[in-house]
Design a protein that fits this description.
The protein has three domains: 92 residues, no CATH class; 375 residues, Rossmann fold (3-Layer(aba) Sandwich); 298 residues, Glycogen Phosphorylase B (Rossmann fold, 3-Layer(aba) Sandwich). The longest helix has 30 residues. The strands form seven sheets. Strands 3, 6, 9, 10, 13, 14, 15, 16, 20 and 21 form a ten-stranded mixed beta sheet that branches. The two termini are 22 Å apart. The protein is of the alpha/beta class and 826 residues long. The chain is globular and about 90 Å long. The protein contains 34 helices and 27 strands. It binds ligand TH1. The site of ligand TH1 has 20 residues, from helix 6. One of its GO terms (cellular component) is cytoplasm. It is an enzyme of class 2 (transferase). Its cofactor is pyridoxal 5'-phosphate. It catalyses: [(1->4)-alpha-D-glucosyl](n) + phosphate = [(1->4)-alpha-D-glucosyl](n-1) + alpha-D-glucose 1-phosphate.
C-alpha cells in the first residue's frame, strides 16, 4: 500500500490489480498480519490473510467516499435496523472489486485453492430472515447507486442460532461467528458512545425561569462502533455499516476485585455486554422482553448520537431534515423518535413545537407485517422503568396528537381510543407502530397488496386522517449477490446475450425475452440449470451427507418456519402423493420425479413450528426409504438454512413454493430471488407474488388458492376446517396417514398436536386451500413434462423480473420518501 499527501490529508491508494502484485500482498499479510509462513499456514490463516488483502483494495475507495460525501454536504440515509443478514463477505468484495480472476490465479500460483478459502468464512448471521436480508440488499444497492447511506445496527456476538437435527428434531447451537477472527470489521473504540438507562425524571427551572423536565438516569453502558465496508459494485464507492457492541462504562471494580470477590468485580461488565450478546431468534413475532427493549434503545441512541456528533459544531439543528432521513426498519428502532425529541428539547433546548417539526421530517417508517400479533407493544410499566423520560415524551406526543384527532373528529371517543398510542388492554402499553406512524414523514408497506391492506386493515384511522402519508415501496433483492455471485453460470449466459449492463440496471433483462423462443438458447439455459443442480448436489453431499438426484424436478420451499407460510400445506401435498402411491391409486412412474427441498429455522420457543420441522423430517425419512415410491419422490431438508446455502439452492431450483395464506405474507423476497434465477412459482395471491405474476404473466406462474377478500369472508362467517376433512377423501387419507403414526413408529402419537390443530383450528386455512393446491401441482407436472415450454417460461421469469432489483426499491424510496440524491462518483 502506498501513501501520498494531498491537501494535507493522507490519502491511501489501492494496490494495482495484477496477479503477481496480489500474490505478494497476500504473502505479506500472511507473514506480517497472521505471523506465519505459507508452509505452516492453516486454512484459516490463509482465509484471514486473503480477506485482509482484498479489503485493502477497498480501503482507498472507502476513504474517498467519506471525503466526497463530506464535501458534497449531501443528505444521508441513516438506515436503522435491528437486523442485517449479510451473508459471506469475501465473494461480494471480490465481485465488487472485479478481483475474482486475479485472486484465483494468484492463489493457484501459491498452491492454494480459492474455493477452499471461501468455505472457511462463517457468514455474519445478524438477522432472522427477510427483514434482515432486505436491509443487507438495501445497503448494497445504495452503495452501488452512490447514494450516501450509513446502515446502523447491532453487532450481536451470537447471530441466528445454528440449526442441527437430532432424530429429525431441531436442536439449536450457538452461532460463534466471531471465534475464528473477524477480518471484515473495523472497531473504533475511540468513537464509543455512552447510553443511559433507568432512573427517573425531575423538573427544574432553567436560567430563563422556564420549568423543564430532565432525565436522571441510573446506569449506563458504552456502545463501541464496528465499521463494515459496503462496497458498491465496481463503482469505486464504499459505504459504511456501523454496528454497535455494548461494553461496561467501568469494566472492572478494582476495589471489589482486591477484596477477592472476582465475580462481583466483573458483574457490571457481564451485565452490559449482555445487551449485544445475542440476536432474538423470533421472526415476525415480538417477544416483549426487557433485554430486547434495551437492545433497541441501545443501538438507536448510539446511532442518533453518532450521526449528530458527525455534524459541524455550528450546525443549526433546524436544518437536520436537510441532511438526514432516519429510516425505521419496522418498529424495532422507533424508540429513536422520543430519543431525538429528548436530545432536541432537553439537551439542545429547542422549543417543543420546533423540535417536533424537525423530528417529523427526519423519520420515515417501513412496516413489514400484517399479523396483528406481530405489532410491537411495550408495557408502560417496563418502558417507564427503563426510559422514564422517553415515556413522558411519548405521553406528550400522544396528548397533542389526540387533541388533533379530537379537532378533526369531534365527539368520537371510540376513535380516540382506537388511535391512542397508549393501549389500555390487556395492559397499559405503548403501540410502537402508532408512534412510528404519527412521527414518520411517510409510512410504507413492502408490496402493493401489503400497502393496501396496511391502509385498510392495520392503520385505517391513520390513513383516513393522513392519506398522503401512506405509500408503497415493493421490496427488491440485490442482483449482485443473488444473480451475479450466486449464479455465475446464468450470469455468463445473460452477459453473453445482452452484455454486462444488467447487473446494475436489471430491467435490461427484458432484452432476453426474444431468446425464450430460441431453441439453442433454451438448450444452454437448461445446461445452466443442470450445472447448478450438480453444484448443489456437491454442496449437500459434503455439507450434510445428503444425496441429491440431479435429473428430477427440484421443488423448493425455503423460508422461516411459520404457520402462516404453510409448510404444512406442502407436507400434506407430499403425504398425499405418498399415500396415493402406496395405496396403489397413483403409479409413481406416471409423474415426473421430484425432489422436495426444505430449508427453515423455527424460533426456539415456537412449539408448533418445531413440530412441523419434525414432521417434515419424519415424512422425508419414510418416503425416501420406501421402495414402492421408486424414487419418484424424495425429500431433502438440509439443516441450518442461511444466506450461504440460499446462494446454492435458489439457482438450482425449478419450482418456487410461495404458498402463504393470502393476506399474511407482507411481501416475501425469496419469491423474487427464485424468479430471477429461472424457477417458476407456485403461489397464492399474496405479498409480492401478486406483482411477480403480473409481470411474468399467468402462463408462467401457477396461481392457486383463496384470495384475500375470500379469506376475510370465510373467517367472518366462522371457518370450520373439519368440513374439508370430511368432504375431501384425498385430504382425509393424507391426514389419517399422519395420525396413524406411519411416520413416527416409535411414538405414534407424536404428531397429534399438528393433526388436531389442523382439524379444529387451522388458523391459516391450509385445509381450505388443499384441493386447489393439489390441482395446481398437477398443472405443474403437466407443464414440466413439456421441456421446451417449461424452459421458455423459466427464461421469461428471468427476463421479466428486473423490477425486483433492490436498486429499483431504492429509487422508489428516494422518489417517494427520502428525496435524497446520489453523490455521483468520478
Ligand atoms: C418480513 C416479512 O414477513 C416478509 O413478508 C417481508 O418480505 C420481509 O419482512 C421484508 O420486508 C418480516 N420480518 C420480520 C421480523 C421481525 C418482525 C417483523 C417482521 S416482518 C422480527
Amino acid at each position: 500500500m502506498t501513501e501520498n499527501r494531498v491537501n494535507g490529508t493522507v490519502s491511501v491508494t489501492a494496490p494495482q490489480h495484477s496477479v503477481e502484485g496480489f500474490a505478494k500482498e497476500f504473502l505479506r499479510e500472511l507473514n506480517f498480519g497472521q505471523g506465519v509462513p505459507l508452509s505452516r499456514a492453516s486454512v484459516n490463516d490463509q482465509y484471514l490473510a486473503l480477506a485482509r488483502t482484498v479489503r485493502e483494495y477497498l480501503m482507498a475507495r472507502w476513504m474517498e467516499t467519506l471525503r466526497r460525501q463530506r464535501d458534497a454536504h449531501a443528505k444521508t440515509v441513516a438506515y436503522l435496523s435491528a437486523e442485517y443478514l449479510l451473508g459471506r463477505q469475501l465473494d461480494n468484495a471480490l465481485i465488487a472489486t472485479d478481483l475474482t480472476e486475479i485472486v484465483e490465479e494468484a492463489l493457484t500460483s501459491l498452491g492454494i485453492d480459492l474455493a477452499t478459502l471461501r468455505e472457511q468464512e462463517v457468514e455474519p448471521g445478524l438477522g432472522n430472515g427477510g427483514l434482515g436480508r432486505l436491509a443487507a440488499c438495501f445497503v448494497d444497492s445504495l452503495a452501488t447507486m452512490s447514494v450516501p447511506c450509513i446502515g446502523y445496527g447491532i453487532r450481536y456476538e451470537y447471530g441466528i442460532f445454528r440449526q442441527t437435527f437430532v432424530d429429525g428434531w431441531q436442536v439449536e447451537q450457538p452461532d460463534t461467528w466471531l471465534s475464528l477472527g473477524a477480518p471484515w470489521e473495523f472497531p473504533h473504540p475511540e468513537d464509543a458512545v455512552t447510553v443511559h438507562f433507568g432512573g427517573s425524571t425531575e423538573t427544574y427551572t432553567d436560567d430563563d425561569g422556564v420549568t423543564r423536565s430532565r432525565w436522571v438516569p441510573a446506569w449506563d453502558v458504552l456502545g463501541v462502533p464496528y465499521n463494515y465496508m459496503v462496497p458498491g459494485y465496481q463503482n469505486g464507492r464504499v459505504n459504511t455499516l456501523r454496528l454497535w457492541s455494548a461494553r461496561a462504562t467501568k469494566a472492572f471494580d478494582l476495589q471489589i476485585f482486591n477484596s477477592g470477590d472476582y465475580a462481583e468485580a466483573v458483574r457490571a461488565q457481564t451485565f452490559a455486554e449482555n445487551i449485544s450478546k445475542v440476536l432474538y431468534p423470533e421472526d415476525s413475532t415480538p417477544q416483549g422482553k426487557e433485554l430486547r427493549l434495551q437492545q433497541q434503545y441501545f443501538f438507536v441512541a448510539c446511532s442518533i448520537r453518532d450521526f449528530l456528533d458527525g455534524l459541524p459544531a455550528d450546525f443549526d439543528l433546524h436544518r437536520l431534515p436537510d441532511v438526514v432521513m432516519f429510516q425505521l426498519n419496522d418498529t424495532h428502532p422507533v424508540i429513536g423518535v422520543p430519543e431525538l425529541m429528548r436530545i432536541l428539547v432537553d439537551e439542545k433546548k429547542i422549543a417543543w413545537d420546533e423540535a417536533w417539526a424537525i423530528t417529523q421530517k427526519c423519520f420515515a417508517y417501513t412496516c413489514h407485517t400484517l399479523l396483528p400479533e406481530a405489532l410491537e407493544v411495550w408495557p408502560v410499566e417496563l418502558l417507564g422503568r427503563l426510559l422514564p423520560r422517553h415515556l413522558e415524551i411519548i405521553y406528550r406526543i400522544n396528548d397533542e396528537f389526540l387533541a388533533q384527532v379530537r379537532q378533526a373528529y369531534p365527539n368520537d371517543e371510540l376513535r380516540l381510543r382506537r388511535m391512542s398510542i397508549i393501549a389500555e388492554h390487556p395492559e397499559r402499553s405503548v403501540r410502537m407502530a402508532f408512534l412510528a406512524t404519527i412521527a414518520g414523514a411517510k409510512v410504507n408497506g413492502v408490496a402493493a397488496l401489503h400497502s393496501q391492506l396496511l391502509r385498510d386493515n392495520v392503520l385505517p384511522d391513520f390513513s383516513e386522517l393522513w392519506p398522503d402519508k401512506f405509500t408503497n415501496v415493493t421490496n427488491g433483492v440485490t442482483p449482485r449477490r443473488f444473480v451475479r455471485l450466486a449464479n455465475p453460470a446464468l450470469s455468463d449466459l445473460i452477459t453473453d446475450a445482452i452484455g454486462p449492463g444488467w447487473v446494475t440496471d436489471l430491467e435490461r433483462l427484458r432484452e432476453m425475452e426474444p431468446l425464450a423462443d430460441d431453441a439453442e438458447f433454451r438448450e444452454r439455459f437448461r445446461a445452466v440449470k443442470l450445472a447448478n443442480k450438480q453444484r448443489l448436489a456437491g454442496v449437500l453431499a459434503t455439507r450434510d451427507g445428503i444425496e441429491l438426484r440431479t435429473d428430477a424436478m427440484l421443488d423448493v420451499m425455503v423460508k422461516r418456519l411459520h404457520e402462516y407460510k404453510r409448510q404444512t400445506l406442502k407436507v400434506l401435498h407430499i403425504v398425499s402423493l405418498y399415500e396415493r402411491i402406496i395405496s396403489g391409486e397413483l403409479d409413481p412412474a406416471s409423474i415426473p420425479p421430484r425432489v422436495f427441498a426444505f430449508g427453515a429455522k423455527a424460533a426456539p420457543g415456537y412449539k408448533m413450528a418445531k413440530q412441523i420441522i419434525g414432521l417434515i423430517n419424519h415424512v422425508g425419512a419414510t418416503v425416501n426409504a420406501d421402495p414402492r415410491v421408486q424414487g419418484a419422490l424424495t425429500v431433502v431438508f438440509p439443516p441450518n438454512y442461511n444466506v450461504t446455502l440460499a446462494e446454492k439452492l435458489i439457482p438450482a431450483a425449478d419450482l418456487s413454493e410461495q404458498i402463504s395464506l393470502a393476506g399474511k405474507e407482507a411481501s416475501g423476497t425469496g419469491n423474487m430471488k427464485f424468479a430471477l434465477n429461472g424457477a417458476l412459482t407456485i403461489g397464492t395471491d399474496d405479498g409480492a407474488n401478486v406483482e411477480i405474476r403480473e409481470l411474468v404473466g399467468d402462463d408462467n406462474f401457477f396461481l392457486f388458492g383463496l384470495l384475500e377478500p375470500q379469506v376475510a369472508e370465510i373467517q367472518a362467517v366462522g371457518y370450520d376446517p373439519s368440513k374439508y376433512y370430511e368432504e375431501n377423501a384425498t385430504l382425509r387419507r393424507a391426514i389419517d396417514l399422519i395420525a396413524s403414526g406411519t411416520f413416527s413408529p416409535d411414538d405414534k402419537r407424536v404428531f397429534e398436536p399438528i393433526v388436531s390443530n389442523l382439524l379444529t383450528e387451522d388458523r391459516f386455512l391450509a385445509l381450505a386451500d388443499f384441493q386447489a393446491y393439489l390441482d395446481a401441482q398437477e398443472r405443474v407436472d403437466v407443464a414440466y413434462r413439456d421441456v421446451e415450454g417449461w424452459t421458455r417460461s423459466a427464461i421469461l421469469n428471468v427476463a421479466r423480473s428486473g423490477f425486483f432489483s433492490s436498486d429499483r426499491s431504492m429509487w422508489d424510496y428516494i422518489d417517494r420518501i427520502w428525496h435524497s440524491q446520489p453523490v455521483v462518483a468520478r
